[in-house]
Amino acid sequence: MQLINATHGGTIFGDIQRDRGVGPHHPKRSDTDSISHGVTLAPDTRLAQLIRAPDPVNSFHVQAVAQLGADLVLTLQSDDGLIEGFESKDGRLVGVQFHPEKLPGTTWDALFTDLVEKANG
To answer: Rounded to an integer, what distance in angstroms lies between the CA atom of residue 49 and that of residue 11?
Structure first.
């Protein structure tokens, strides 16, 4: 997600705890084995069509998107205000900050279904 954002001219926070003053988003920076948190889904987006009521997401990052790149639309935000997801204006590109592959059986399975459908054209 961060690389996609950078290729569109966006920026990142090098260290979200330092730069944004938020709590840890990586287990190695906390006293827990895992970190999860709620997210808010932006309406009228491709992601909102796929995920009607988002399950909490996992968190394994120190860096995060600061400023979205050109032609990217905010789709998902953490409870502490970090960008957790975006998509291109045409909805063909979807990027998320968390690891949906580690959340099987949740609403995030729809991301993989969508990816396969796009690949099959």
So the answer is: 27
CATH architecture of 2-120: 3-Layer(aba) Sandwich (3.40)
Q: How many CB atoms lie within 10 A of CB 91?
A: 15
Segment 87-113, tens digit of pLDDT: 999 888 999 989 999 899 999 999 999
What are 61-93's pLDDT values in tens digits? 678 899 999 999 999 999 888 899 999 998 889
Domain ranges in the chain are 2-120
**What is residue 23's predicted lDDT score, i.e. its pLDDT?**
65
Residue 25 identity: H
What does pTM read for this prediction?
A: 0.84
- Count Cβ atoms within 10 A of the Cβ of residue 4 and give its class: 0-12 exposed, 13-18 middle, 19 or more buried: middle
